Amino acid sequence: MPILDREDDVFVLDLGAGENRFHPDWIAAVHAALDEVEKADGPRALVTAATGKFWSNGLDLDWLFAHADRHEEYVVSVHGLLARTLSLPVVTVAALQGHTFAAGAMLSLAHDFRVMRADRGYWCLPEADINIPFTPGMSALIQSRLTARTAHEAMLTARRYGGTDALAAGLVDRVADEDSVRRTAVETARAQAAKAGPTLGTIKARMYASVLETLRDTAAPLG
Amino acid sequence: MPILDREDDVFVLDLGAGENRFHPDWIAAVHAALDEVEKADGPRALVTAATGKFWSNGLDLDWLFAHADRHEEYVVSVHGLLARTLSLPVVTVAALQGHTFAAGAMLSLAHDFRVMRADRGYWCLPEADINIPFTPGMSALIQSRLTARTAHEAMLTARRYGGTDALAAGLVDRVADEDSVRRTAVETARAQAAKAGPTLGTIKARMYASVLETLRDTAAPLG
Amino acid sequence: MPILDREDDVFVLDLGAGENRFHPDWIAAVHAALDEVEKADGPRALVTAATGKFWSNGLDLDWLFAHADRHEEYVVSVHGLLARTLSLPVVTVAALQGHTFAAGAMLSLAHDFRVMRADRGYWCLPEADINIPFTPGMSALIQSRLTARTAHEAMLTARRYGGTDALAAGLVDRVADEDSVRRTAVETARAQAAKAGPTLGTIKARMYASVLETLRDTAAPLG
């Protein structure tokens, strides 16, 4: 389960050591961590890291198949997590040490910056291959953070991007060796810790107003 | 006139050996080809190619001047072709062996990917030079597929991009020798043939929802 | 105060030799210059230059603090200047010989193209540092002219971009030596002088319709 730690001005949220899929309890734990980050005072920033082979593999499809009647509620909660991360009033950096797939990839895009391991692990939106169309809110999020060309290729072809390709396509901002992914992310976050506060929150909320509105529109198609 | 052929999983639509302008009959023939591609079953993708010096020179201005009273209906039909191509539920690749101008250039942007001949032929939006402003729908289409910088330069300066410049500006995804433009496009399309189907259609329709709405809004300015 | 000059087809507007902040009188003088450019006939283009260490340092905060009761009216007038520049029916080029900050940077983005001095001077949006969130209209303008990645970094981190970095990030289109910034801008403008006219105005107005609407929406948050 996600665990929050603090190194001076930088909170480090570790998403876990498994596939780190979005189980309802996992989502609740991430929200609790974000609550703590938001409630804290003074300069601060957030790094979202993980341990092992995966950063996050996205939706918890096992749980979802076992709770088909809660499908709509579940998607609303995933949208809520993406929207909250996108508009968090502190600078956020995703430290992608492992595979970052599907809704996991979307959660990484909801961060302000991404550092990815250079030599192993893939960033991938497999939805076109597994026959799950992006919801309008997910589509809006992805398109708002990428060039039209990269969004089109990533969303239609389900291409798996290694670190170097992900950097070239603008999916991530930096690549690093396995040993330095988290440290690079922490340094990036620390340099922006003084930005934390309501002004930053307003800037993000206005930049992504239409994305946030689509993510929070429970009347839009959810599947 | 446009002719549809099939090479295994890849349909190849040849737009013609002339200027391949959008005469009403030509538009109808393209639609008939797209009908066939849509109706087919199983893995499939589309390459839109042409023969000779032009891929397409855009609107059929001769026909339009001779039928001024049908101007509005004509623009609606052009918008319809662009919208349908943009949301086709198979992966589409434009094989630009020759000049690709004006509405021809827009039709190329409605494809998922573009391969352009490296050493001859231009991609150009001459509208600012010939005093025909882009309709809001055309503007939305062009802007949705390019970086802001490339769209601005292409739409305001009517610059003619050769293959290498078009690649650098992100107007096309690949360049190739004269002999291999079509083959490269077919290979690109074949690799994505398994994506064909309603999920891909939904992904495209949601990504470009606002563009499609503007293209189909017959109340918007058409000239 | 701003002074308008003409070199054949190219109008050169010099924003001044000071910090060239947006005092109401300064704004009025810029509008008077734009009136003259708009009213002129025939081929023409506009270069907006300045003299000294600054191109423009943005809002006149001294004036604004002394006239707190006119805050809303002031922001409306700044929005109006940005909107008018963005939709001017002639090609516009900003010749950035010195610091270009905050609303000054936004005014530069409202031009069609930017040439920046390579070796000195910064382009910067310091709003996140000085606790002044971008208005929705300013946010829309900035985001409409930059890649998502550059807009995100520039707006959230208040990074100061020197000429070379600004070129790499796509904030400017060209860099030049101190001596040739203005000349390069004039040459760029002259090459597009024949484009002046209502078609160009319509193309710009349609490309940036939603930005212009947001800038002109006096009901939107202004602070």
TrEMBL record, chains A, B, C:
GO terms for molecular function: delta(3)-delta(2)-enoyl-CoA isomerase activity. Keywords: Lipid metabolism. It holds the Pfam family ECH_1. It comes from the Bacteria. SUPFAM superfamilies: ClpP/crotonase. The keyword Calcium does not apply. InterPro entries: ClpP/crotonase-like_dom_sf, Enoyl-CoA_hydra/iso. The keyword Lipid metabolism applies. GO terms for biological process: fatty acid beta-oxidation. This is Enoyl-CoA hydratase. It comes from Streptomyces fructofermentans. The gene is paaG.
